[in-house]
Amino acid sequence: MPTDLDGSLEQDVRGNANDRNGGMRRQSTVVTKDDDSELSECECQTRQYPPWTGEIHGMSQALLSKSRKLRAFWWLVLFVCTSCGTATTVLVVIEYLQGPTATSTTIRLVSSLQLPAITVCPKVPDALDFDGLFDDMRTLMPEISNQTALDVVRFWLAGSGLENIDAINDYNRTYLDELSTVFNRWSEGYDPKSFFELMQTKHGYTCDELFYYCELGGKAKNCCTDMFRKRAVMRRGLCFQTLPNVNQTEADDIGRLVLLMKSPKSIISPQYNYTQPQIIIYVNDNFDYVLDFPRFYLYPNEWNRMHFTARLVELLEHPSDCTSEIEGKDTACFVRNWLTSNVVDQYNCTLPYLTDIPNVPPRNVCDPVVVVREYFHTIQLVHSGSVHSQECVPGCKRWEYGVSLQQSQALDNFTGFKFNLEASFYDLQYEHVKEVYTTSVPGFMSQIGGQFGFFLGLSIITMIQIGIYLISYVFNFFYKLFKQSPEDENEDNQDPTMTDYNGAIPSNGHVRTNGLQMVDGVLYSNRVRPVANGHMMSSWM
């Protein structure tokens, strides 16, 4: 129960506090009038804003403006600038992820330039030795006639998937079955693939029977060992293609490739006097597989001048545009599409000279009668580019060749050969087209910094400070939330205006009662605090 002494002490304390409060208020007013800078400094220090707030343009005005209208204005400016900076930064990131590119074109001069793959094929794929074939048949079938033997050869070539066997379309189904029976007797003991390879090896035309003379850069070359090799071409059978690294080392006519060719046999073409009426030239960038386009036709006793232009294309990989897994055109894809769409999917078998095409499921070679029955629609009229079961994506790095052909009739017939071809580049140079990204990593970083720097004046250091501040704030918040002790909670919930139960001054030397605080034996108002120079001023806390 309180005593009279305690009541007197409380009254004295309250009176002393009122006197001091009046003086402190007067001193506070004087300080405010005499030294505005000191007041502003104290105000800023008292509120204890993070240091980075002064580095964001407009943040100080938004925090320290005394007018609500000014604060609202500056906060609106900060919101608009932050929104604009964020939006433009998002656009920069999206543009960087999409990978904007530019294409550079350079003309490069070289001392040597590789010729494209030049493939030479007879027009009709029947350049065979008929006498050898006929003798081979008569060994097994002595009674066979020349006409029947010729029809069997037509049946075999058409059933192997070779085009321009026009007479096969005039045979009815009954006669085709008879030819199939004769063919089975002739090929007894061999599967269709082995028989095709055997007959082509024994009775097919050779390199020497096709080429008469070869020259490169003014120097004579051996056509069969130095220049050409055998290559299978869809619907054309076996042809000859230039070897890799056949290079032109001099400009135009001086370094040109000269080919003089004979006219091979055409044993099923009486309308052409049993000789090849044309030679077909294919020009590709791929030495592994041959596309049957673009193609150029050479005629007997004509001068043929072919010029090339070269372009090296290097693109960045885009899944729908190009791939880095291959170089050049995906020639195997075109061949695979034609073979799969026209033969494999329809008959569940393949052709004897196209058994090594990649990504084609293993199949047995078709029996010739299977293909012959639908020859006109399956082989003769269907071109390689007419059916695509899948898109053929070219390589990101590839050579592209432009080809022009000039033809003129010779004044006199050629002697010793029938066909001529001269091919070369105009100049030893090529066009280099390269795709590059327009935004590099340093450029991307400078653009990101430029957006926030333009709108808010931020730098990477400021962003780091903001990040550290936010992490620390969140950590401290949850730490206090989950780690606060029960004693701290009781102390926080105690009424600051109450003293000890016995009215004594606490051990820390502070007394709070009715808005008053005693520090070191001196009673102060909670709205007034001492400063370093001994004066009193109002607290902004």
From TrEMBL:
Pfam family for this entry, one: ASC
Protein name from the UniProt record: (pine wood nematode) hypothetical protein
Organism: Bursaphelenchus xylophilus
Any one Gene Ontology molecular-function term assigned to this protein's record: ligand-gated sodium channel activity
Highest taxon of source: Eukaryota
Chief site of localization: membrane
Family designation: Belongs to the amiloride-sensitive sodium channel (TC 1.A.6) family.
UniProt keyword annotations, A-Z: Glycoprotein, Ion channel, Ion transport, Membrane, Sodium, Sodium channel, Sodium transport, Transmembrane, Transmembrane helix, Transport
Membrane-crossing residue ranges in chain numbering: 73-94, 452-475
Annotated Gene Ontology cellular component terms: plasma membrane
Region (Disordered): 1-36, 489-509
Membrane topology (UniProt): Multi-pass membrane protein
Subcellular location: Membrane
